[in-house]
Amino acid sequence: MNNVVKIKLGIVAVSRDCFPESLSVTRRENLVNAYKAKYDAEDIYECPICIVESEIHMQQALEDIQKAGCNALCVYLGNFGPEISETMLAKYFDGPKMFVAAAEETSENGGLVQGRGDAYCGMLNASYNLKLRNVKAYIPEYPVGTAEECADMIHEFLPVARAIYGLNHLKIISFGPRPMNFLACNAPIQQLYNMGVEIEENSELDLFEAFNKHEGDSRIPEVVKDMEAELGEGNKKPEILAKLAQYEITLLDWIEDHKGSREFVTIAGKCWPAFQTQFGFVPCYVNARLTAKGIPVSCEVDIYGALSEYIGTCISEDAVTLLDINNTVPADIYNSDIAGKFDYTQKDTFMGFHCGNTASCKLSFREMKYQMIMARSLPQEVTNGTLEGDLVPGEITFFRLQSTSDNQIRAYVAEGEVLPVATRSFGAIGVFAIPEMGRFYRHVLVEKNYPHHGAVAFGHYGKALFDVFRYLGVEDIGFNQPKGMLYKSENPFA
After folding, report:
1. Is the dihedral of CA 411, 128, 167, 71 positive or negative?
2. pTM of this prediction?
3. Tens digit of pLDDT for each residue in 277-293?
């Protein structure tokens, strides 16, 4: 993933001046050793310059971790900790941060007398002061633990930190406007700015002009060769590869020329209705290829879809996709391939579909085809460019972050799986199963006016996604609630 940051997390221990500083020193060393014994030592940096007890120490520690190239921070309460200077450190550090605290080790040899740290209490004061300062920080579900437990908490924070850092250095490049009848892809930009995301909105004419300027580009044959190798026997439309390569180069050059001060980029692309007739193809396969490189490209100018995909890319460090929450599973498929084999009702299942934007590595088989829906009203030859196939079976997380039309930010997360069931359909498509999907569909997706696009990460990443959304300040985070846990809008007598 060449569009995702590598996190280097600085660990700074703090101490209240009426507690033994040695407690925090020893506990920090134990924490660092525990992390290095289990995880990649390159993930972390131990700030050795001081234990933060005062504002002066805070400045020294901040300077040290900045010089060390840290882009994330862990404030470690080795004992009670100084709530003012420790939260000032979090305020002045420009990057994602977390707070964890040391549990008491033993009652022997005065362990609960001279060796008692009271970090359990200190975490309460730290959280109170963070709120006073309006500082966002990640605090684990149970933020007090042994060195080994705190090491695990830090490791769980890394994907969250990648996403938060990524958003603060992200530019979304869109080519629009969105197609007619796609009001669901509404994208108020205020919440993007609130999250630290920049956006560059362009006309599709700008993109068309840039594409035409790349005609005959010397790099096209090399990209075509790469496409041929990727597609293999699925290369059913070889005549369109040169144009697709020209388009891919156009997008990559646009990114380099327009990323400006930002480190990372994602694209909300146009794909119809005039795209096919003017460009002479559909861009699905190129979207898939860029997404596999860590540059998600959403369909139908779905800006918050692109944003969601990028968050999933940061968390999973893997290719993601954007799919329509599309159609029900027919009874004959359910009865023959699912019932009695998997513990899902028919209402727990659905098909996720898009024309052909999913990376080839996430398809069980792949073929370059034409876009069947568009070809119903257009010449088939201008609809070539989709990458079709059934999605690989396995664990998935369906999710989305969205601003409503009245500028309220909300999100949903639901874990499930792609079933090893043939779809008997077209496009990039899979049979999905999410526990209690029927209720989730009605009382989250429909009730809260979510668009039909959902981002898909290939694995179970619900915890990290939920923590990212909470870090961002999202108060309304929907999930697929289990039986017996009613949604607010659910009729208890139904």
Report:
1. negative
2. 0.95
3. 999 999 999 999 999 99
